[in-house]
Amino acid sequence: MKKRFHWGYLGSLCASVLLAFAIGAVILAIAGFSPLKAYAAMVDGAFSNARHIGDWLEYAMVLCLTGLACVLGSRVGIFNVGGEGQLLLGAVVGCQVGVWLAGRSAWIVLPAAALAAMATGGLYALIPGWLKVKVKVNEVITTIMLNTIAASLCQYLAKGPWKNPNKNMVAATAQLDSRYWLSKLIPGSNLSTAILAAVVITFLTWYVMEKTSTGYEMKLTGQNPRFAFFSGIKTDRIVIVCMVISGAMCGLVGMFRVYGAEHLYRSSISNQYYFEGLTVAMIAGYQPVTVIFLSFFFAILKIGAQGMELTAGVPNQIYLIIQTVIIFFMAAESGVFASLRASSQRKKARADIRRKEGRDHA
Amino acid sequence: MLEDILSSVFSPGTFNQMLRSATPVALAALGGAMTEHAGIMNIGMDGMILMGAFFGVLGSYLFGSAAAGVALVLAMGVVVGLFFALFTVKFRSDEFIIGTALNTFALGLTSFLSRSIFGTAGTKGNPALPVVHIPGLDSIPFLGQVLNDNSLFIYLTWALVLVMWLFVYRTPYGFWLRASGEKPETLRTAGIAPERMKWLASILCGILCGLAGAHLSLGQLQGTFAEDMANSRGYIAFACVIFSKANPAVAYGAALMFGFFDAIGLRLQDYVSSDLTSTIPYVITIVMMVYVVVRSQRRKRRAGRRLSPRQG
Amino acid sequence: MDEIAVRFEHVSMAFPGVLANDDVTLDVRRGEVFALVGENGAGKSTLMNVLYGINTPTDGRVFIAGREVTDFSPRTAIGLGVGMVHQHFMLVPSFTVAQNIVLGREPRRGRAFFDNAAAESTTRRLVAEYGLEVDPSEPVEELSVGLQQRVEILKTLYRGAEILILDEPTAVLTPQETEELFAVIRRVVREKNMTVIIITHKLYEVLAISDRVGVMRKGQLVGVRDTSQVDEQTLASMMVGRPVLYDHLEKTGAPGDVLIQVEDLTVRDNRELTAVDGLSLSVRAGEILGIAAVEGNGQSELIEAITGMRRIEAGRVTICGRDATGLDPGAIRALGLAHVPEDRLATGVSRNGTVTDNLLAGRQREKRFNRFGLARRTSTIQRYARELYERFDIRGAGTDSAVGDLSGGNMQKVVIAREFSFDSPVLIIAQPTRGVDVGAIEFIHSQIIARRNAGCAILLCSADLDEVFRLADRIVTLYEGKITGEFTGEFSKDEIGLGMTGGRRDKEAAS
Fold first, then answer.
1. When comparing pLDDT for A229 and C375, which is higher?
2. Is residue C455 classed exposed, middle or buried when 0-12, 13-18 and 19+ CB atoms within 10 A define those classes?
């Protein structure tokens, strides 16, 4: 039973991906590019050299952590659409902590920065979480608004109080001392030791959700909060805590981006990365293991698309198009499949009656 | 200093700016009111606006006239509305997933096409929507400056608010629309398919959000398209819809309130960083959402006190 | 009089997995009141939905006033003069009475505009013609259930119905409202020669109102009789398919200490109206206290308040001698309370969860199911779930399937199995057998009595009065959030009925 479901999912995912590439090809052709050349450039962009492999893994880490942050919320029935803001704030605060503590040992600065980033992201997620649970305000709108607010706030900090002393750097904070930089695992790429921490976090998230009683309580809360409350679970607390952890994870991703790749805060720290993670989570049906695997796949696409932009001049947004078209196809497939199944069951029921009547008359 | 700020804030320019900022939100909110009445949670309006903005400019660029841009937007609105209804009504997909995916799709598609067609710099100065001058209105002090010489769609929006209000509350179709969201079975047992009203609502929403986008790019910015120019206006429109309980007239009022704070933010830029002032409307939107809930709870409690036979 | 209003010929209706109607052939005559009886799930509503065009029959033919129905849709049925009052009212709460009545066939002003004045005057005319008093301009959400039903009937009359289907019309009515409804039915049949088909499972009502009665069982029509030729006993045996002889439920032991104590409790409902009004009661160990009340008189809110699902406005709840006021359900459960909720789907189960997950809920933190508090012992959990599954005779596709795929009765068994397995000294049970088939009812009843005999204090609330009579040691009647009577020993239906309507005193005050 369980196995068949997984195969069905895999089948529909593969079909959707192929169809999405076909649609992407049509759009490329309409925009005047050769789809074949573009896709070839994409493959080339993803695998041509070691640096790209490093970038790929780093982006897979970002997608995986943000995707899991989204899953963490949706598991208990709250949709954290505000990860982008939590990520940005975590990045800017985490970075500034490193600037403030300049001169101290990396063993103090890095944990302090990570904690600060997590606290910032978590607190920022606490606002919509608390409003949702205690006041019953729809979290989708509040988190979206908080994204925009956070982006402006970070922009203000990077231009104003925390701005880079170098006059040529506009809208960027001061650079971190190089001894706080996380060491690169593949030189020249974005891949740093942050990925090791990410692996641990990924494992822990999966483990808590799938293997512990806490995970079971989260699942019940998400499936039917009234029933969960009825059976004795403190649902309000579990929802808020999950939302805060989700925000903390996003904040940490921001800190990883700063200390692992950019070494200062500027808006390119995240270009709607959380939404790409969220999309991955949706395609994965909010299943943690699937999120992990799909992160690697979509990270290839993303890095490939960036390479494609450089070599073939095709805007990399084709990646967003393909990603969302996959969602549409999967939604359509389940919709069409459900109606097909219903009609086949109707037909079967009718045939059963006919057969029965035939027997009765005979 | 304070005097300067106040006189700048309460100048006709502020109120004119309020009108300008409110209009795209109001148009989208009118569309959102349709889907809301039909019982569809529509958070895909942001993407619909963005596509309207892009295809408006594209039509204007390709055919050299703003009218062609608007025509293209209308067609696009119908297509997007049909597309949205296909998933939310026909396939019964998760509205949240489809709405979010639609927004991301719109962002990807418009940015991709814009870069492919116009290059990374984007496009500017395409034929824009006309500015309407009403002779005689100038003679009224203050109001004349606020209301006159605005882009066409600002006036169109007033007409649409009236039309949509009449449609929802004064025509049989409006009753069907509301029944289809509030209690679809009533409509089915009356021999009308509620899905038909949901499809209609979705198409109307696509068109109205498209017009909102067209106003942004062809009206407000005079034929300019910039990436992600909807800038969360679709979500603000959604908040207006919730706030107004999908009443088109009240939704327009809510949009005006948003516009007012946006205008104030723009005025205060001379004194405070624009990065801070630009957050004002978004903060107000959150406050608005909280207020909606608190208001409905308080109302219920008051009604409860009134109707209860005796106090416990 | 012998003209045929409706004819079903070999009608079958199949839903995925269920044959809801199985080869039904039936004539209903013009100008008669025809009662259709049967247990939950016997196929009564499905058959009527076929007549009203909501279901297209899988097989067979339907004739209305001599014309064969080819295109099954409510629109066609309405056109042929069929009107249906559904069990769950089909009214838009925010619309006024008049707007609801004309929905779908609105009077118009000009071509496009809704003519509210015409809608209200038409409604007023109908009100006068049929004597169904109701204010046309009042929003439906502010009407009582009885008045809402009137609006439903008026709606069918507005649409020109000559054949009126009433689906369980008395389930939510007080005895007086039921009497008024029956008077209306008699009047429309006598004066307008209408045909009324009434679906019910209350047999005394069948005898009171109908001319003929059809009995359905498991999708089949097992018999049609003249009402004058039958009594309740005969009908009951026809419904169940065997003589109805409930097993005698052996009650043993004497009441012990007070385990549930409610003092001066005041609770508000979702609309912030006072639902429970300064109520006090107590239940002893080894005793079942039954609550008899018409729906909406505060019994749901009372139970939710006791179990921690609803905020308490004033008063005190004590469970097993410890104060439970204002605690959350988890803390109250820890005091020794288990709860079978009235709305199984909304509160009692997680529909998408597996049977195992649903059986475990509330025990997930127990030591035996956890390894060092870190990992769940999956195999122990599965073994535990399978054991309960067997013991409570749950029938479905196993413990790994979703609870939502079970039938209503088996879903209820999952709830009962979980809640009874706690061995709690206090049990709060609401609607234990709603939508449950007969075999399961007897099983559930025997389980409840077994808990009672084991020394549980049980508070039982059920819309099925017979169930309350059968199980309870003591009954209190509830009306508008207050206790209006208490009964022990031999229960008298009349006195309890009176208590449920607020008693004589209140009635006089109202008139």
1. A229
2. middle
- The CATH number assigned to the domain holding C254 equals 3.40.50.300
Q: Are the C-beta atoms of residues C320 and C426 closer than 8 Å to each other?
A: yes
Please choose, from the candidates C164, C185, C216, the residue with its C-alpha nearest in 3D space to the C-alpha of residue C52.
C164
What pLDDT score was predicted for residue A1? 34
Q: How far apart are CA B56 and CA B310, in angstroms?
A: 61
Q: Are residues C154 and C95 in the same domain?
A: yes
CB pairs under 8 A between B and C: 92
Which pLDDT score, from 0 to 100, does residue C2 have?
62
| Closest CA–CA distance from residue C344 to any residue of chain B (Å) | 22
What is residue B202's predicted lDDT score, i.e. its pLDDT? Answer: 97
Whole-structure pTM value = 0.89
Q: How much is the pLDDT for A303?
A: 92
Total domains present in chain C: 3
Q: Which two tokens stand for residue C190?
A: 């006598």
Please report whether residue B141 resides in a domain.
no
Please, which residues have CB within 8 angstroms of residue A87's CB and are 6 or more apart in sequence? Answer: A66, A121, A250, A251, A253, A254, A257, A269, A270, A273, A274
pLDDT at B123 over 90: no
Q: Quickly list H helices, B93-193.
A: 95-118, 143-147, 152-170, 172-182, 184-189
Residue C345 in any domain: the answer is no
| Preferred mutation among A76, A210, A211, A227 to probe C, highest tally of C CBs within 10 A | A227
Say what the pLDDT of residue C509 is: 38
pLDDT in the model for residue B101: 94
Structural domain containing residue B14: 2-129+151-300
Chain C closest-CA separation from residue A245 CA (Å): 19
| Domain containing residue C198 | 4-240
In a domain, C390, yes or no: yes
Please indicate, yes or no, if residue B256 is contained in any of the structural domains.
Answer: yes
Picking from B37, B169, B186 by the largest number of C CB atoms within 10 A of its own CB, the best residue to mutate is B186
* Boundary residue ending a domain (C210, C240, C270): C240
* Cβ within 8 Å, pair C93-B178: no
Instruction: Kindly list the partner chains of chain C, i.e. chains with 3 or more CB atom pairs below 8 Å.
Output: A, B
Task: Answer whether A211 touches C (CB < 8 Å).
Answer: yes
Question: Does residue C165 sit in the same domain as residue C53?
Answer: yes
Residue B310 falls inside a structural domain: no
Q: Is residue C221 part of a domain?
A: yes
Query: Within a domain: residue C346?
Result: no
Q: Which of C223, C240, C257 is the last residue before a domain boundary?
A: C240
Chain C residue numbers with beta carbons less than 8 Å from the beta carbon of B178 are: 92, 94-95
Is the predicted pLDDT of residue B84 greater than 90, yes or no? yes
| CA C386/CA C374 separation, integer angstroms | 23
Cβ contact, residue pair C108, B172, below 8 Å: yes
Residues in chain C, pLDDT under 70: 1-2, 17, 242-248, 437-439, 502-511
Q: Tell me, yes or no, whether C254 and C314 share the same domain.
A: yes
Same domain for C82 and C175?
A: yes
Whether residues C195 and C320 share a domain: the answer is: no
Instruction: Report the run of H or E that residue C172 belongs to, with start and end.
Output: none
Count of domains for chain B: 1
Residues of chain B with C-beta less than 8 angstroms from the C-beta of C315? 312
On the question of pLDDT at A357 being above 70, the answer is: no
- Region at C355 (left for phi over 0; alpha for psi -120 to 50; beta for the rest): alpha
- CATH code of the domain containing B80: 1.10.3470
Q: ipTM for the complex?
A: 0.88
User: Per residue in B3-52, pLDDT tens?
Assistant: 877 887 788 888 999 999 999 999 999 999 999 999 999 999 999 999 99
User: Is the Cβ pair B182, C314 closer than 8 Å?
Assistant: no
Which of B100, B108, B117 is nearest residue A321 as measured by Cβ atoms? B108
Distance from CA of B120 to the nearest CA of A (A): 9
* Contact call for C16 and A233, based on CB within 8 A: no
